Structure formats: C-alpha cells, structure tokens
Amino acid sequence: MDCSANTIAEALAELTARFRVVAHVRDEQWPNPPVPQRYLNEEDIRFLGGESCCVKEGDRVLLVPSIAGGSGA
Predict the structure, then answer these.
(1) Nearest Cα residue to 54 out of 2, 8, 1
(2) Residue 38's beta-bridge partner residues?
(3) SS3 per-residue string spanning 5-67
(4) Which residues lie closer than 8 Å to 40 by C-beta, 6 or more apart?
(5) What is the residue-level pLDDT of the chain in tens, covering all 73 positions?
(6) Closest C-alpha among 29, 30, 24, 25 to residue 8
(7) Angle at 19 between CA 46 and CA 34, to 5 degrees
C-alpha cells in the first residue's frame, strides 16, 4: 500500500482507516502489541524508536504476525 505518512504511527493510522483492522494492528493503550511485529525495512521498529520513527519514500513497513504452536506432546 502506498501512503504519504511521515512516521510509522501515521502509516498505521492510514492503514487502519483504509482497512478497519485496528484491533489486529494497533492498540492506543498498548502501542507495541506482540502481534503483529512491525518492521521498517526489515528492522524491528522497537529498536528504531517505535512508532515515532520516520519513514521516507521507498521505505517498506512490514507487519509480520506471530505464529504460536508446538509439538502438542
């Protein structure tokens, strides 16, 4: 999805407004939920300043859902 956001927070706000997926992407009470993990150009945003880190043209924001499971044994 192309957007005109300047920060991760703005990009997520635009995403949630377009596709109404707020509960699955972002929570105002908990801005860094464990699911999904968010990356800026394959770098975890938690190490880049969180949702306030800047994005520029050509950057990729990746949302990667966590997959839980086990052997069931």
Answers:
(1) 8
(2) 63
(3) CCEHHHHHHHHHHHHCCHHHHCCCCCCCCCCCEEEECCEEHHHCCHHHCECCCCCCEEEECCC
(4) 8, 48, 53, 55, 59, 60, 61, 62
(5) 778 899 988 988 888 788 776 555 655 555 555 557 889 999 999 999 998 999 999 999 888 876 666 565 5
(6) 25
(7) 25
* Beta strand 61-64 pairing with 37-40: antiparallel
The tokens for 1 are 């999805």
44 close to 56: Cβ distance less than 8 angstroms:
no
pTM for the whole structure? 0.68
